[in-house]
Amino acid sequence: MTTQPRRTPLYDELKKLGGRMVPFAGYEMAVQFEGIKAEHNSVRTRAGLFDVSHMCEFWLDGRDALEYAHWLVTNDVKGLEDGQICYTPMCMPNGGIVDDLLVYRYGTDRILLVVNAACHDKDLEHVQKNVRGDVKVTDRSYETGQIALQGPAAVEILASITGGAHRDLGFFRFVDSEVAGKPCLISRTGYTAEDGYEIYCDNEHMVDVFRALMEAGEPHGLKPIGLGARDTLRLEGKLALYGNDIDLNTTPLEASLGWTVKWDVGDFNGRDALVAQKEEGLKRRLVGFQMVGKGIGRHEYPIVPAGSDAGAEPVGVVTSGGPSPTLGVSIGLAYLPKKGYKVGAPIGVVIRGKVVEAKIVKTPFYKRPQ
Fold first, then answer.
1. How is the chain split into domains, by residue range?
2. DSSP string covering 332-349, please?
3. What's the CATH fold of domain 56-139?
4. Which pLDDT tens digit goes with each residue over 267-326?
5. What CATH homologous superfamily does 258-361 map to?
6. Which residues make Cβ contacts (< 8 Å) with residue 361, sequence separation at least 6?
7. What is the Cα–Cα distance from 230 to 160, expressed in whole angstroms?
8. Which among 47, 108, 177, 193 is placed 20 to 30 Å from 229, CA to CA?
């Protein structure tokens, strides 16, 4: 029996605004409105508003909530202050990545995990079956909506309807507050490599909050943005996409996420395997590349040594790739052997049976002006 995709609380609102809806992670989501390039540029130069209500929220409550969250992920949750957030992988005992997520620390007895929609079922099973101590796991994914306000004008737009209350909210900090008179969780986070906020509230309030932000943002050029531009924006910032760049067969060390693995703050799930991998030495790593020849390196395209023909043994595979509207070139990510593939090294991407020249480049591809 075919399961019908879910619809977010903003489905009708986005349809009215011209959103082209596609299936994504079990939902019908807007992939674009006026076009991916135009929407991408709106976020880079002004501001964009995303419906990301498909994202999932798991609450950990109880005396041992902090201890459990700290063991569950590779980053240092105990080291956070109340009201602070960290980005982190969550691993299996063998070091493979179950998901990458955000951990919100309310206190020692209350933690919020925000995980990817496509990983909801396996993440929930993983979190529930590994509970240690006095912890209650509550899934509020289908009761909670989320929108992301991103771009250089994001701070001014939110300030205009909150009396400037969150202008000075620190990066990766959060607060419970109100937007348009509705109770919301506001965090200074995002998935675009731009400044901005992610705003959570109960589904029943989502339309009011969305409309208030769109109205406040109109003088600033705020536009609704779809998943297509969300992907190009995150790729320019080298922000990993679960299922493409990271999965159960990759580790944080291979994925260039070693900065999220805190070795000196106690045990965590997967620690022994990651220690062994670190001591043995990495055989491959996730790198960025830029096309030199004409063509676009897409997901799952083989990579061969420079100068090889299309039948050569691949040395890697493209995990994410596409045109960069900001840079005006085609870029991508790929796992390649650590030895011999440094920044500047040439590679070949096999595109429709032909090898097209590319080169390894420094990442992230884009950094926002400070």
1. 6-55+143-236, 56-139, 258-361
2. EEEEEESTT--TT-EEEE
3. Alpha-Beta Plaits (3.30.70)
4. 999 999 999 999 999 999 999 999 999 999 999 999 999 999 999 999 999 999 999 999
5. Aminomethyltransferase beta-barrel domains (2.40.30.110)
6. 288, 289, 290, 331, 343, 344
7. 25
8. 177
